[in-house]
Amino acid sequence: MSTKNNTINTWDFVEENYPNYHSSAEIAECLDLDKFLDEKTDGSLRFWTKEILLDEMKVKIYEKAIQAFLEKKETTASIVWSVNDFEVEAERQFFILKEDEDGDVEGLTSWEQYFDKSKFKMALDEMIEDHDAEYGINNYSVQNALETYCIF
């Protein structure tokens, strides 16, 4: 689909939410027509032709994508992990290390001196990318990512 900066998000939304997007005849027809008009018409003719031929088709596609999105929202729930979870876990881990006689935090007064907060987002991304879907993500995953990526 030919897109401009202001419409990229719209078609990405359609691609993500339109039912059976990659096997839809309606989507294929719309994309084929759009490609044909891009190749075969000049700018002014393309503008008017596209307005007439594609607008109605796109409206139907957008409506279907929006409907599917709304239905999906009604039947799904998400669990979200964030950098804040890393901060909470870093503080908890630092407290545990301070209490442990063998803890490697002597002379440090806060978790910010032990964990590099600037690496939390990267650690979060790595944790999500590398997780095992059979076990999911939990506080042990956050703890492991902290220890792997964020210790100074």
Write the layout of secondary structure elements.
Layout: H1 8-17, H2 25-40, H3 43-75, H4 83-99, H5 120-130, H6 139-149
Helix pairs in contact: 1-3, 2-3, 4-6, 5-6
Q: Any overview of this molecule?
A:
By secondary structure, the chain is mainly α. The chain has helices at 8-17, 25-40, 43-75, 83-99, 120-130, 139-149. The protein folds into two domains: 8-75; 83-149, no CATH class. Helix 4 (83-99) crosses helix 6. The protein is elongated.
From the structure above, extract its key features.
0% strand; disordered N terminus; 2 domains; 152 residues; mainly alpha
Residue share in helix = 55-70%
Described by strand count, sense and barrel closure, the largest sheet is: none
Number of domains: 2
The residue-averaged pLDDT reads 85
How many beta-strand runs?
Answer: 0
**Derived structural class:** mainly alpha
Radius of gyration from the alpha-carbon trace, in angstroms: 25 Å
Poorly predicted ranges = 1-7
> How large is the share of residues in beta strands?
under 5%
Question: Could you state the order of secondary-structure elements as H and E?
Answer: HHHHHH
